[in-house]
Amino acid sequence: MGNCNSIVSTTIEEPKDGHENVVFFQDKESLRDTGKPRLCSLYSRRGKKGPNQDAAILYQGYGTDDMVFYGVFDGHGRNGHIVSKLVRNRLPLLVLAQKNALNGHNYEDRKAGFGDELVSNKRLHQWKDACINAFKVMDKELKLHENLDSFFSGSTAVTIIQQGEDLIIANLGDSRAILGTISDKGLMAVQLTTDQKPSLPMEAERIRASNGRIFALKDEPHVQRVWLPDINLPGLAMARSFGDCQLKDYGVIAIPEISCHRITANDQFLVLATDGVWDVLSNKQVAAIVWLAENEEEAAQSVVNAAVAAWATRFPNSKVDDCTVLCCFLQERRQHPVIMKRRAEQYVF
Q1: Would you say residue 18 has pLDDT above 60?
Q2: Can you give the pLDDT at residue 120?
Q3: pTM of the predicted protein model
Q4: Rounded to 5 degrees, what angle do the CA atoms 133, 192, 325 make?
Q5: If you average pLDDT over residues 175-187, what whole number do you get?
Q6: What is the pLDDT of residue 10?
Q7: How far apart are the first and last CA of the chain?
Q8: What is the percent of the chain with per-residue pLDDT over 70, rounded to a whole number?
Q9: Is the pLDDT of residue 189 over 70?
Q10: Which of 109, 141, 173, 272 has the fewest CB atoms within 10 Å around its CB?
Q11: In three state form, how does the secondary structure of the chain look?
């Protein structure tokens, strides 16, 4: 069963209505000043492997009126459902605290960008350092948590901070973010993050240099996993994560990859989702589903429904994974009426 939730508060807390996996946090002052929330939707659906270990948050009015924090988290291991929600509730506040602490620091105002676009790098460097510091603190807090065993449990995190027209993307693990943008050929899906799998040469080199082992199981030859040096545990399917304390001495790290993007008039929407979606749907397919959704509020649920159907078709003998999606539209879809009328296969490539 899928669930969604919205709250207005001054702190991020667990919802009391049972819809604990996704949270829309709207700062009261931001709502008053902006007049209306952004065109966003969140949806999470439990798979068939146990409790829903995914979590997501949309935090509007994050620090200032023009800022938004988007985050999707995918837990794993026995206590993964606890870890993902702890990270969701704590990480946004840690990043903001670290950013505020860096405001007085002297950064060179160099130039850097995403692709061919250049943005002021002074603010980017502050956010980059804030994210890296906050992720480290978050991982340490999990390790020191008195009532949580995170030795073989952990969570991914894919987050985007939007400040005006700038996006700061921080990724840890194998959840993913994409951007739907318009080109001369139609709608294009741009992947904003890299799935940090043990099969990636850079990740594998670090893990093996730390005496971690990487190999796939016989019944899953396509899935490379991380193992302890002398015992076949735990078999982690990603190279970076929160938690997973037993693997932190063997090359698994909690340092995110940071990138940035300056929003243009052609950029239409963002999608953040857990691997339950990306394992069965391509970036192009997800972009098409979002663009063709009946309305913005149903976009996330439409992607989740399509992913669940794809699991049944592609892996009929496998247990469906948890699927969580956060969609945010950056422009009004009516600005491109011609493309809206085209069939998905005609404009997504």
Answers
A1: no
A2: 59
A3: 0.88
A4: 90
A5: 95
A6: 36
A7: 32
A8: 81
A9: yes
A10: 109
A11: CEECCEECCCCCCCCCCCCCCEEEEECHHHHHHHCCCCCEEEEEECCCCCCCCEEEEEEECCCCCCEEEEEEEEEECCCHHHHHHHHHHHHHHHHHHHHHHHCCCCCCCCEEEECCEEEEHHHHHHHHHHHHHHHHHHHHHHHHCCCCCCCCCEECEEEEEEECCEEEEEEECCCEEEEEEEECCEEEEEECCCCCCCCCHHHHHHHHHCCCEEEECCCCCCCEEEECCCCCCEEECCCECEECHHHHHHCCECCCEEEEEECCCCEEEEEEECHHHHCCCCHHHHHHHHHCCCCHHHHHHHHHHHHHHHHHHHCCCCCCCCEEEEEEECCCHHHCHHHHHCCHHHHCC
Q: Which domains can be identified in the chain, with CATH numbers?
A: 2-194+257-347 (3.60.40.10)
29: pLDDT strictly greater than 60: no
Average confidence score pLDDT of the chain: 86
